[in-house]
Write a structure and sequence with these properties.
The protein is an alpha+beta fold. The chain has one domain: Factor Xa Inhibitor. The protein contains three helices and three strands.
Length: about 60
């Protein structure tokens, strides 16, 4: 029986927490920050959790 390879792009973007939730960082916080207001940039700094069927698909991709 073969093994399933880890999807490396997904493994770099998502982490699975100890409770089994999928954690991710927000995008759009790298450049052109002068045109984004402070509240938007502040909320982009914090991490977020993926929910539902998308989370189970990501877990399958990264082998957790």
């Amino acid at each position: 029986m073969g093994k399933i390879k880890t999807h490396r792009a997904s493994a770099k973007r998502f982490r699975v927490t100890a409770g089994g939730m999928v954690k991710m960082n927000h995008s759009h916080h790298r450049h052109k920050l002068g045109i984004k207001d402070q509240k938007r940039k502040r909320h982009l700094r914090s991490a977020d959790y993926v929910e539902g069927k998308v989370a189970s698909n990501i877990k399958r991709l990264i082998g957790k």
